[in-house]
């Protein structure tokens, strides 16, 4: 329906979506959270406990350049993995799924690939994690299948704090399980000042859950999946509510994707500044990146790139 409405008005889809917002912002091309290494349940715990390791080209001057950077890092990682005799099969989201010893080794390999591609970790590129620990949360305890550890909520948060000391990780999605609301509040106090804490399983793009999380200060950003909430109107309302509360919103794909490119227009039209749509392999993921390149071309000299959304 949105596609038809945009066509009948003779405007691009992102422009139509922007008109639905209660507080429209200037269109902005998002920084991609590009998945380059998969783990967790997506790989049957053969790789890492953390489900997704992503790179974000925050130092790029434009979307086009940012995309080139992440594509180069993806290929550099393939070389690094081959040199170290790891497999280079890709997981659900298009990132590599090597049988590494654990989370630490995955981060080390990614850091090496970034350097090999000629970029500087921390200025050109930062890291984002999607932990998805609802998969291994049992009776109040986080049982990390790969590392064989049992951690409390507080210990999980302390672990992220340690990782953040060693790597630039300004974004952690689903750092704790979806029913661990107390843990989320404590994590937001501990890490929320300098970390984007994204609720996905916690909030399931639901305005009621979002309202509760804003009130309780559990998380400070929401992952937005259009087909999770059902309608475009509700999606726009969720982003508007997040923005009005000083929260960030990240537009996202689903694990099982098609080549539909609506989410590219959502990210630009609602000026979320971030998009999560998998790796630069697999056509269903690449379709979104190609559409963003077309939108950037369409906007011409008016094209703005979100750049470092964490400054």
Automatic annotation (TrEMBL):
Pathway: Carbohydrate degradation; glycolysis; pyruvate from D-glyceraldehyde 3-phosphate: step 4/5. CDD domains: enolase (cd03313). Gene3D superfamilies: Enolase-like C-terminal domain. The keyword Membrane does not apply. Keywords: Glycolysis, Lyase, Magnesium, Pyruvate, Secreted. GO terms for biological process: glycolytic process. One of its GO terms (molecular function) is phosphopyruvate hydratase activity. One of its GO terms (cellular component) is phosphopyruvate hydratase complex. Its cofactor is Mg(2+). This is Enolase.
């Amino acid at each position: 329906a949105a596609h038809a409405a945009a066509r009948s008005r003779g405007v691009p889809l992102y422009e139509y979506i922007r008109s639905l917002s209660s507080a429209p912002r200037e269109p902005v091309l998002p920084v991609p959270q590009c998945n380059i290494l998969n783990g967790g349940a997506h790989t049957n715990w053969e790789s890492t406990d953390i489900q997704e390791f992503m790179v974000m080209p925050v130092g790029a001057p434009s979307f086009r350049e940012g995309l080139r950077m992440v594509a180069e890092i993806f290929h550099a990682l393939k070389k690094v993995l081959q040199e170290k005799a790891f497999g280079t099969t890709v997981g659900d989201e298009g990132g590599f799924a090597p049988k590494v010893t654990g989370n630490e080794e995955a981060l080390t390999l990614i850091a090496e690939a970034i350097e090999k591609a000629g970029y500087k970790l921390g200025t050109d590129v930062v890291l984002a994690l999607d932990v998805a620990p609802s998969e291994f949360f049992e009776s109040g305890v986080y049982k990390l299948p790969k590392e064989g550890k049992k951690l409390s909520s507080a210990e999980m948060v302390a672990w992220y704090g340690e990782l953040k000391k060693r790597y630039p990780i300004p974004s952690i999605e689903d750092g704790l399980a979806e029913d661990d609301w107390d843990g989320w509040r404590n994590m937001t106090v501990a890490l929320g000042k300098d970390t984007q804490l994204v609720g996905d399983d916690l909030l399931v793009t639901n305005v009621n859950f979002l309202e509760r999380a804003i009130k309780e200060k559990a998380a400070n950003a929401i992952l937005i999946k259009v087909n999770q909430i059902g309608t475009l109107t509700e999606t726009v309302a969720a982003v508007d509510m997040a923005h009005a509360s000083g929260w960030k919103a990240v537009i996202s794909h689903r694990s099982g994707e098609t080549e539909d490119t609506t989410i590219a227009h959502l990210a630009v039209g609602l000026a979320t500044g971030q998009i999560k749509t998998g790796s630069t392999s697999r056509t269903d993921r690449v379709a979104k990146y190609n559409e963003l390149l077309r939108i950037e071309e369409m906007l011409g000299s008016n094209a703005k790139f979100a750049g470092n959304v964490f400054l």
